[in-house]
Write a structure and sequence with these properties.
The structure is a homodimer. Chain A has about 260 residues and is α/β, with parallel strands linked by helices. Chain A is built from 13 helices and seven strands. Bound molecules: adenosine-5'-triphosphate (ATP) (2 copies) and magnesium ion (2 copies).
Chain lengths: ~260, ~260
């Protein structure tokens, strides 16, 4: 079955959605079939994939609450190797609903396990998480084989990382013993900025091999792309952003050869 | 009593904490007494104010759950006009606790109303919110006179704004009829970047007077300051960032003269 990777960090605006969209597109460019799952009530990944808000009647909330099967809510895109389960703003009310349920942390895992057939048509599933360590994010961690953490090259970014790694350990102990760390990717990196260089040094000193060799540079072409409902690979294929996300995809593929 | 303003936007990384810290410092510089309340489990505002993690045993969680009075958990700072109620990571579990309570949206308002004495020593209270429309943020909206929304000059930013304005209207209808919009402030603005100019044009066309005249430029001095536990006004008083936050403070003061 597919490798399931949760892209998460409770710090906001660090490049989670940008990484889901562009890593997804870079894997798809190599002929790999990828399913994106949008678990963020903001629905930014759904927007970046061109899903109009009017087309979001069946969403990940239905999947979590067992109201719809995966196959019926997958939306295809212009790219034959890339599909998405969209999110809607109702997800922000999911927390109140999820908390009441007995198996509240396992809803996504159970929903994904139910549809063996559908899963088999994908080699990777990437899950976009909201900026919080709530039950929606816990569901993503319990359902995933690995977690990939975008780390913005800024001061506040390192502060939240230890809290996230503690949560990953707790999920491993409580519900998903095989959850591994796919890696930490530095985003919005600006080599002329001391702060960026400092964050990279701290991250590599403290986390060593966990930090991807690939660093995603700050690149205006990346932030322009979603307004055209394109990945940066389509929007500007030779941009620094497109080149970096292709390099990240190569590292992710190399790490998953053995599965 | 003090004017209470919630600084909020469920989109992550748009400059909420940065605005709380630097608007707070700019008001304090004019001799105005300001209390900051950190409602974000990441505790970035607490860090920016120099509150060590070891000093966060009494926090906003205790205030919400009625376990501590405001006066006992306020921490002073080097700046005589600026104090803070710190946050701790336990806040991320508050949601589960808050949801069970009958008056779950009013806990902060009640806690702030209890201590008339303490409140009177401040002229502004600024509340830093987490990147989500959860009960913690709802508590801030119910407790506040006004909401100030940092809007990052990027594509995804406008998408979340309409959802936030809907929530403000709902809070007004359900619990806080006087809640007004203090304003929307463009952050990380780069005049050489078409996307920034486009977002500004869209915001001013759609929201008119609600958008502050002051625009906060992208300025590396702003992102360096928290690593020294300083506001940008202290870190580099003549920087573009410091000048912009002083201008924002002047607008906020002008708008609150009548109260
Ligand atoms: N490498 C980059 N260079 C330039 N801009 C970037 C880069 N990565 C992301 N951005 C922009 O920064 C903003 C934040 O990125 P994004 O929305 O992907 O973060 P996020 O972690 O998903 O945010 P949230 O916490 O709200 O879900 C977006 O406007 C995005 O276009
Ligand atoms: N005008 C600016 N110029 C340059 N950097 C900025 C500016 N405003 C904020 N930043 C930096 O951008 C990052 C995001 O800002 P900040 O953490 O204040 O946003 P936030 O909305 O509070 O995030 P969260 O949603 O995680 O609470 C921080 O690293 C901050 O230092
Ligand atoms: Mg996102
Ligand atoms: Mg913040």
């Amino acid at each position: 079955g597919p490798r399931i990777i949760a892209i998460t960090n409770q710090k906001g605006g660090v490049g989670k959605t940008t990484t889901v969209i562009n890593l997804g597109a870079a894997l798809a460019e190599r002929g790999i079939k990828v399913l994106l799952i949008d678990l963020d009530p903001q629905g930014n990944a759904s927007t970046a994939m061109g899903v109009e808000t009017s087309q979001r009647s069946s969403t990940t909330l239905d999947l979590l609450l067992g109201k719809a099967e995966l196959l019926s809510i997958i939306q295809t895109s212009k790219n034959p190797n890339l599909a998405i389960v969209p999110a809607s703003k109702d997800l922000s009310f999911a927390e109140v609903e999820l908390i009441k349920r007995r198996n509240r942390s396992e809803l996504l895992r159970q929903a994904l396990q139910k549809c063996q057939e559908t899963r088999r048509s994908y080699q990777f599933i990437l899950i976009d998480c909201p900026p919080s360590l709530n039950f929606i994010t816990i569901n993503a961690l319990v359902a995933s084989h690995a977690v990939l953490v975008p780390l913005q090259s800024e001061f506040y970014a390192l502060e939240g990382l230890s809290q996230l790694l503690v949560t990953v350990r707790e999920v491993r102990a409580a519900g998903n013993p095989n959850l591994r760390i796919e890696g930490i990717v530095l985003t919005m990196f600006d080599r002329r900025n001391n702060l960026s260089l400092q964050v990279e040094e701290d991250a590599r000193d403290n986390l060593g091999e966990l930090v991807f060799k690939t660093v995603i540079p700050r690149n205006v072409r990346i932030s322009e792309a979603p307004s055209f409902a394109k990945s940066v690979l389509e929007h500007d294929p030779t941009s620094k952003g497109a080149i970096a996300y292709r390099a990240l995809a190569a590292e992710v593929i190399a790490q998953n050869q053995k599965y």
